[in-house]
Write a structure and sequence with these properties.
The protein has 290 residues and is of the alpha/beta class. It has eight helices and ten strands. 42% of the residues lie in helices and 23% in strands. Strands 5-4-3-6-7-10 form a six-stranded mixed sheet, sandwiched between helices.
């Protein structure tokens, strides 16, 4: 019964991804990413009319004749998803938790890429890299990725985004597109994000729950940090407290967005109350116009 439910969920996500590709991307799929470009093919003897900036001076000095580098267009995009599966993602106030919502986002992006015959890989992390899946092609590979994400129970309790980004920087050799899917309730990762953004086209996707930004109008509520187990009490009946709470998260959000922008990392903030397909569609439309 569980397997049947799983395949139904995956099929629903597949339909959303197909719609995303057909309605927006089509043959212009690659135009919304900066990951595509040119890659080195071979060196041959220089001929009149070649771009002198492409001369390979090392080969030229060895051969005694000018040689030039030949490049060819990259026809394949590598999409690599860095997905937070730490304990804080399992919190939520609605029908769907942040962890399942993150899985929907991951699946939509991955299925959209595979529909265009691109390679998709992933790293799932908590306070360690829980699972590393090298880029691969095909629907079977993507379904396996989605299955792994939905079924993986993290061994770690905390969140170490810095560790995950360093791992991607070291191991993902070829330039690609990195979607970092997390609630970003961690710190110490800015230097690693800067390094990764110099090498890859990076998009930070922040998953939030409605109560992350608007405190409910209720009585005394016990708040427990799912990663540190620290407990706080808050009075939702206090208008001044709710205003301070909302202002605090707005300021945190502005600082986070500015930090990403300085590093050339685009941001997409999604609430679990949003339709992920609709919001990703809007994001891609904005990106294509930019």
């Amino acid at each position: 019964m569980e397997d049947l439910s799983f395949f139904r969920r995956v099929r629903q996500i597949e339909l959303v991804a197909a719609k995303l590709v057909d309605q927006l991307l089509g043959g212009r799929y690659r135009s919304i990413f900066r990951g595509q470009g040119i890659e080195f093919d071979e060196v041959r003897e220089y001929v009149a009319g070649d771009d002198v900036r492409a001369i390979d001076w090392n080969v030229t000095s060895r051969m005694g004749l000018p040689h030039t580098k030949i490049f060819r267009e990259e026809r394949e995009i590598i999409l690599f998803n860095v997905v937070d599966i730490s304990a804080s993602l399992y919190a939520g106030s609605g029908e769907i938790g942040k962890n399942e919502y993150a899985a929907h986002v991951f699946a939509i992006l991955s299925l959209a890429a595979v529909k265009n015959n691109d390679r998709v890989g992933a790293a799932f992390f908590s306070d360690r890299i829980e699972k590393w899946i090298p880029p691969g092609k095909g629907r079977k590979h993507i379904l396996s990725l989605i299955h792994e994400l939905l079924k993986t129970i993290p061994r770690g309790s905390g969140s170490d985004l810095d560790l995950a980004l360093k791992g991607v920087y070291r191991n993902l050799k070829r330039r690609g597109i990195c979607f970092i899917i997390s609630d970003f309730r961690t710190d110490g990762y800015w230097d690693s994000l800067s390094l990764l953004a110099r090498k890859h086209d990076c998009v930070a996707v922040k998953i939030v729950d409605p109560v992350d930004t608007v405190f409910p109008q209720a009585g005394i509520i016990e708040l427990e940090d799912p990663e540190s187990a620290e407990v706080l009490f808050a009075d939702g009946r206090s208008p001044s407290f709710r205003q301070s709470y909302e202002r605090y998260w707005q300021e945190k959000q502005a600082v986070w967005e500015a930090g990403c922008a300085r590093r050339g990392v685009e941001t997409l903030t999604l609430s679990t109350s949003d339709d992920p397909g609709v919001e990703i569609l809007r994001f891609f439309r904005r990106r294509r116009r930019a």
